[in-house]
């Protein structure tokens, strides 16, 4: 990552201005606010740099916290602490540092003079000591699990319990930069054909493979305005793991005796926002689709997605746990339940999530997921199908949740689809499932249930 000006780009804002924004973002996340919310309030000209640096800092925050504890055992005031932590993360050993060391120190001190003048000399002394003793301090920081894996201790322990043989690799993968993956609109083209359009536009990319036949991975991320046909609805941005949901619900699985959904099927997308999976369903089949979301504002994003892709669905703001508010009493052919979850599988894309979640959240989310399953199951016709999905690594939100549901419902039959159901881990060989996807995917869980 670099922030140097080029002929095509205006000069980057001074680092001290970005550091003040990043420090505010880090402090807000530590206070329980989402990074998305904070970035929305960031001045427009500072937003790209602030986002890039905030992602970097939040991916290294565990190490920075451990190092700061060594360098300054007494916590500085929060506004100074967040600035110090941000600078320490930028100074963390890296083969491709974002800035030169002396620039980080100089600009952090400049920012401190603006933020808390009396603390400028303290910030200068701590950062210079870190550089002098960096190898020893980093080594000491990494003796602390939070410092070594850059996740909260409870999160590390939960991943270790759920995935005792893969936990270290899973945590490491969660700190990697995610690729930009596209979903080619199946109603308009194919992935191989669109790949040729990308190459013609000077964009390097590759196909994902048969488990995600519409997916194309870019060699480097670009603005969507550079994607051929994006405005016309030829392609969308969606991770390969998320692209498994719609085919799992719509297509036939002959080896398991599951036929394809028929055109005109009555389908519910129970927690639709932001609408990527909603649109994918409509790209695969003409259906009567009801898209629900409890947040009316988030439904605006669903409608925007559908408008760009020239698709139609009925959108309704409602809690899926209360069918009386939205169900007409006619049994549904199929339901996609992309349930609210910890988002532990997508922390590569949302590095603030690990610092926002608390251990107690998992049980609360699992309770909501169970309530959704219980409320939706009676609306499904006999022989109908339900796909349960979460973007979570935790078994409480996946395997354990579905096992408990099957014990409560004798009329539910679980269908295993190789490579698409079960826990999908963000690893090269995805040991969590029977099949394999390349290591470009987020962590997900899928279950396909048929009503007897």
Q: Helices and strands in order, then pairings?
A:
Elements: H1 15-30, H2 35-40, H3 47-59, H4 61-71, H5 78-90, H6 101-115, H7 120-132, H8 134-141, H9 145-149, H10 153-162, H11 167-173, E1 181-184, H12 191-200, E2 205-209, E3 212-218, E4 235-237, H13 245-250, E5 266-269, H14 276-284, E6 288-293, H15 296-308, E7 314-317, E8 332-338, H16 353-356, H17 359-376, E9 380-390, H18 399-408, E10 412-415, E11 422-424, E12 444-451
Parallel strand pairs: 5-6, 5-8, 6-7, 8-9
Antiparallel strand pairs: 1-3, 1-4, 2-3, 9-12, 10-12, 11-12
Helix pairs in contact: 1-3, 1-5, 1-6, 3-5, 4-5, 4-8, 5-6, 5-7, 6-7, 10-11
Task: Write a structural description.
By secondary structure, this protein is an alpha/beta fold. The chain folds into three domains: 15-150, N-utilizing Substance Protein B Homolog, Chain A, CATH 1.10.940.10; 181-237, Alpha-Beta Plaits (2-Layer Sandwich), CATH 3.30.70.1170; 242-451, Vaccinia Virus protein VP39 (Rossmann fold), CATH 3.40.50. The chain contains 18 helices and twelve strands. Strand 6, helix 15 and strand 7 form a beta-alpha-beta unit. Helix 3 (47-59) packs across helix 5 (78-90) and helix 5 (78-90) packs antiparallel against helix 6. The termini are far apart. Mean pLDDT is 94; it is low at 1-8 and 431-436.
């Amino acid at each position: 990552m670099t922030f140097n000006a080029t002929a095509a780009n205006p000069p980057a804002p001074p680092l001290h201005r970005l550091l003040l924004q990043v420090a505010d973002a880090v402090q807000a996340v530590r206070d329980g606010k989402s990074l998305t919310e904070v970035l929305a309030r960031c001045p427009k000209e500072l937003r790209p740099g602030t986002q890039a640096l905030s992602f970097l800092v939040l991916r290294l925050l565990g190490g920075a916290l451990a190092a700061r504890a060594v360098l300054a055992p007494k916590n500085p005031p929060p506004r100074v602490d967040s600035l110090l932590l941000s600078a320490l993360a930028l100074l963390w050993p890296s083969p491709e540092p974002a800035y030169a060391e002396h620039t980080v120190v100089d600009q952090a001190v400049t920012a401190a003079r603006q933020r808390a003048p009396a603390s400028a000399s303290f910030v200068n002394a701590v950062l210079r000591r870190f550089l002098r003793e960096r190898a020893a301090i980093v080594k000491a920081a990494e003796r602390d699990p939070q410092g070594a894996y850059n996740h909260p201790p409870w999160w590390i322990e939960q991943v270790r319990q759920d995935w005792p043989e893969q936990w270290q690799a899973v945590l490491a993968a969660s700190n990697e930069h995610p690729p930009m993956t596209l979903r080619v609109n199946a109603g308009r083209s194919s992935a191989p054909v669109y790949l040729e359009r990308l190459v013609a536009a000077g964009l390097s990319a590759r196909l994902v493979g048969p488990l995600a036949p519409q997916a194309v991975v870019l060699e480097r991320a670009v603005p969507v305005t550079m994607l051929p046909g994006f405005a016309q609805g030829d392609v969308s941005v969606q991770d390969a793991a998320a692209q498994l949901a719609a085919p799992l619900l719509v297509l036939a699985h002959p080896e398991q005796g599951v036929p394809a959904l028929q055109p005109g099927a009555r389908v519910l997308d129970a927690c639709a926002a932001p609408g990527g999976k909603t649109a994918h369903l409509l790209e695969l089949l003409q259906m009567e689709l009801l898209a629900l979301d409890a947040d009316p504002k988030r439904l605006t994003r669903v409608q925007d997605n559908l408008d760009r892709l020239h698709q139609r669905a009925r959108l309704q703001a409602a809690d899926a746990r209360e069918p009386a508010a939205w169900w007409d009493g006619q049994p549904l052919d199929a339901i996609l339940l992309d349930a609210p979850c910890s988002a532990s599988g997508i922390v590569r894309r949302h590095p603030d999530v690990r610092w926002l979640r608390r251990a107690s959240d998992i049980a609360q989310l699992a309770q909501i997921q169970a309530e959704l399953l219980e409320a939706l199951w009676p609306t499904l016709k006999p022989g109908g199908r339900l796909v349960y999905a979460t973007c979570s690594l935790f078994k409480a939100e996946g395997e354990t949740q579905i096992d408990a549901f099957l014990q409560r419902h004798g009329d539910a039959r679980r269908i295993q689809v190789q490579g698409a159901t079960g826990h999908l881990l963000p690893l090269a060989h995805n040991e969590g499932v029977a099949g394999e996807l390349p290591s470009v995917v987020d962590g997900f869980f899928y279950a396909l249930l048929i009503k007897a």
